[in-house]
Write a structure and sequence with these properties.
The chain is an alpha+beta fold and 202 residues long. It has two domains: 1-32 and 149-202, no CATH class; 54-148, no CATH class. Helices cover 14% and strands 35% of the residues. It contains three helices and twelve strands, in the order βαββββαβββαββββ. The protein has helices spanning 12-24, 84-87, 137-147, and strands at 2-10, 35-37, 43-45, 56-57, 81-82, 101-103, 109-118, 128-135, 150-161, 171-181, 187-191, 196-197. The strands form four sheets. Strands 1, 9, 10, 11 and 12 form a five-stranded antiparallel β-sheet that branches. It is globular and about 60 Å long. The two termini are 26 Å apart. 22% of the residues are buried.
């Protein structure tokens, strides 16, 4: 089972329409836009989607010398963070070269960027790794209030079932959900397709 969680900000009056588009989209291809980071640590928009405001940076650093370290994982240098356009007005900062902890101007922990797992290219054992960005309630409320936007969270559960037949590659199923968080931190849950089987086009 693979769990993929992503989010964007949207105008409250457009949130319902964006939610509907996401849960009606083919689950195999549903996505949300994100920021990347260039070689000078500047944010740039990797892709765009109408009415979606990107607020999280997903880094794509390379492992380089540590690529073959059996005890390490490249996700350690791919921790997500809040984009500068939202972090800077709040004085959000980090004293950690890996960006693991983000602090308020007074030194209070407001966000944590975590990475875990291991990768072994010399084994058939499946890679298990991941990253996540944890935000405090106060930080999320500040971001939503200052920007006058709502938060949409896309949850995608992907399951792959291997088929050992001679002419089959297995099958993918997806379960999709969208969660809306308002400026007052009220939560709305929207159920999408459940165990939807992806059928490749011929």
């Amino acid at each position: 089972m693979r769990v993929r969680i992503s989010s964007v900000l949207v105008e409250p009056r457009k949130a319902a329409r964006v939610v509907k588009e996401l849960i009606n989209e083919e689950p195999m291809f549903v996505w949300l836009p994100q920021y990347g980071e260039d070689d000078e640590d500047r944010d740039y928009l990797r892709n765009e989607k109408p009415d979606c405001v990107t607020w999280v940076v997903s880094q794509s650093s390379e492992a380089r010398l540590d690529e073959d370290d059996p005890l390490g994982s490249v996700c350690a240098v791919r921790r997500p963070r809040i984009a500068a356009r939202f972090a800077s007005p709040l004085g959000l900062r980090t004293d950690d070269p890996f960006g693991r902890v983000w602090l308020s101007p007074r030194g209070r922990v407001l966000a944590q960027s975590q990475a875990w797992g291991r990768e072994n290219k010399h084994s058939e054992e499946k890679t298990v790794s991941g990253v996540r960005l944890l935000s405090s309630r106060s930080l999320l409320k500040s971001v939503l209030t200052r920007s006058n936007l709502d938060l949409l969270i896309l949850v995608d559960l992907q399951r792959y079932e291997r088929d050992y037949g001679p002419h089959s590659d297995g099958k993918f199923t997806h379960t999709i959900a969208v969660i809306r968080v308002t400026k007052s931190l009220d939560i709305e849950y929207y159920k999408g397709r459940i165990n939807h089987l992806h059928r490749p086009r011929d």
